[in-house]
Amino acid sequence: MIWSELHQVYHNLSTLKICIWALSNLCRGNGSVELDYELLRIALPVIEAFLTKFTDDEVLMDACWALARTLRGLNEKTKDVVVGSSLCQRIVEMSL
């Protein structure tokens, strides 16, 4: 659902690149503060959509950075959200 909403609003690849770049930077935080669980729950499907719907290297790189930044300081609740998504499988596929 998130992908279709993004795609309906932003048909231009360069605009979508800016979106994932911005999300990656928003996920950066300052390293000492864990992201709010609700924000993470919203961000992960967006990151997942970018990782699964694109083949553009720049988009994939920013999506991977966004994911890496959200996973800092994992707690049990966060681990459940990530493991419950298809993100882990997609990262493995990309690494092969």
Question: Describe it for me?
Answer:
- The protein has six helices and no strands.
- The chain has 96 residues and is mostly helical.
- Helix 2 packs parallel to helix 4, helix 3 runs antiparallel to helix 4 and helix 3 packs parallel to helix 5.
- The protein is globular.
- The model has no long low-confidence stretch (mean pLDDT 76).
Task: Describe the SSE topology.
Blueprint: H1 2-9, H2 13-28, H3 37-53, H4 57-70, H5 76-83, H6 87-95
Helix pairs in contact: 2-4, 3-4, 3-5
Compose a concise summary of this entry:
By secondary structure, the protein is mostly helical. The chain has helices spanning 2-9, 13-28, 37-53, 57-70, 76-83, 87-95. Helix 3 runs antiparallel to helix 4 and helix 3 runs parallel beside helix 5.
- Provide the gyration radius in Å: 13 Å
Report the sheet-strand fraction.
under 5%
Helix run count: 6
Low-confidence stretches: none
| Gap between N and C termini | 28 Å
Task: Give, in order, the helices and strands.
Answer: HHHHHH
Q: Give the biggest beta sheet.
A: none
Tell how many strands the DSSP assignment holds: 0
**In percent, how helical is the residue content?**
over 70%
Q: What do the pLDDT scores average to?
A: 76
> Structural class, from secondary structure content?
mainly alpha
Number of domains: 1
The geometry reads as globular
